[in-house]
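Researcher: I'm preparing a figure for a lab meeting and need a structural model of a single chain. I don't have an experimental structure, so a prediction will have to do for now. The sequence is pasted below. Please return the structure as tokens so I can convert it later.
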Amino acid sequence: MSGQGWQPKTGYACGCRRGVQRDNCPDCEGTGQRIDFAAIRAGKLDARGLFEAVKAAGIAYDNHESDLYIEATPEARALLRRYEHRDNARPFVHAVTGAIWLDVPFAFVPWWDARAAQ
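Model: Understood. Here is the structure written out token by token.
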């Protein structure tokens, strides 16, 4: 899967079997979870997609619990326009640097992953 773009998974397991069948599965493309191809075509990002795109773009980020804070660069704003809950994001002034950052509620995926693992 290296070199491929991010693939939004639906959270539903695919019915294919491991091995050759999974490698050639058009529904999951070998991931084992169904992929939301409509979201890919629409270019929409969910929280995981937004977080992964921010990391891949090298945009500075931080968090407070489940809230994702990203530096308000032009690249970050472009990604945020594709985020499905973009209307919830709010700008704020970083207390240390004085730069404008964006608070994206509930979008810090590692916090949710850790909570789900408990």
